[in-house]
Amino acid sequence: MIQRSSHYILFSWVILLYLIEIFFPVPYINDVLAGSTIVLFLLSFPYASTLFKILAAVFTTAGFFFIFFYSLPTGELYLYVNENLSLLALLFMLPWMNSVVRAGRYDRKINTLLSANVNDLGKLYQRASVTSYILVAFINLSALSLSQGVLRDNLQRFDRKLQQSFIAQTTLRAFAVALCWSPMEILVAISVDATGVSYFSMLPWLMLVSFLTLTIDGFIGRYRYRKTAYSQQNNGGSVKQILKPMVTLFTALSLFLASIVIIGNLFGFDFILTVTLVIFPFAFTWAVLGRRRRSFLWIGVPLWKERNSHMQNFILLFVSLAFFSTTLNETPLLEMVQDPFLAMGETPWIVLFMIQLTYLAMSMIGIHPIATIAVLIEAVSPLFSIANPLSFSIVFVSGALATATVGTYGVTVTMTAMNTQQNPYRITWMNMPFALLYGTIGTITAILLL
């Protein structure tokens, strides 16, 4: 069996075949790609977490059940596993953007915000939320551990429960809203692909939902913690000191988005493929211009290998989902899944709330939002012709990301529980009002656009 540390080699082979199939299609390349994907799936299974093993087993078993129960043609069923490779290719490239931010030490510079002088925990709450928000937008999950570690050190003298609540609220909530508009967030990519709505049509509305939710939560947090003094005075950083790296990061993000538009329009690529192709050359150019090429490669190559050798959970999820979704589409059962949503077709605003609540309910029993969105897309896609698909795309994203703060068995809540040494159910309970607020703001925004 291939060693886990070398898993990236087989993963790289599959992604290479996928790109060859797109740009240089040759006879039987699809068959070789499907065979390689199945091998990757099988070798990933032993290393995946129990939850994702269960999900993959359920989706795969259901797919085979559909095939035999409904007597579907079996000649090319093995090709079904190729359907979600575009999403795996995007995940395959994401570590390079993380690497360029680390190479430029932007994460450390911006994190000095948490050491700047504040008088009470209310102000620190807002400061921590904004800092985590900025970092998450660029280095995703890595920002969670970074911010939680700094806060844990700064709050050592406070009551343990207060520390736990403060850290779990500020960092998880900032994480959930920061990814709402990120072109590198996989749920955003799925929504763009499923609804056919341009990412740049979604962007202003997703940013509105994101900023509005962050602002409201910031005011609530400041009010809640305002009476708790925070006398630690540390001149390790100030707003002026981190202004330059902040401007650099947001300039880079603007140029990244511009690159996606230009290349996508120039070559006619879809959004997911464009982001996948742009990430590495953009990150490398950024490192060269910032005179960080060596640091970028020194940090980036090991990080890329490590991340792609530990992608087993997502490989199991996306490959099994592709098989399940493709077979489901060919059965009459799809109509049964769609019926509850189509019954409310004349009142699409109710459907939007149903989507939000479905996400929350599924997250409570450990179903990943990517698995939930795959089923929801099949269920509500007929409504795209009678209601604004932009509204659905907004709820698909905001409803899914709201679960990042309450999904008891999810990666973010589990990681926070480990970092703060508290029960994950307690994190779910304390963040549920925020998840409902976030989802409701997204849903109301979507309703106004119907």
TrEMBL record:
Report keywords, A-Z.
Membrane, Transmembrane, Transmembrane helix
Q: Which domain of life is it from?
A: Bacteria
Q: Where are the transmembrane segments?
A: 7-30, 50-70, 77-97, 130-151, 172-190, 202-221, 242-263, 269-289, 310-329, 349-377, 389-409, 429-449
**Record keyword Transmembrane helix present:** yes
Protein's name according to its UniProt entry: Citrate transporter-like domain-containing protein
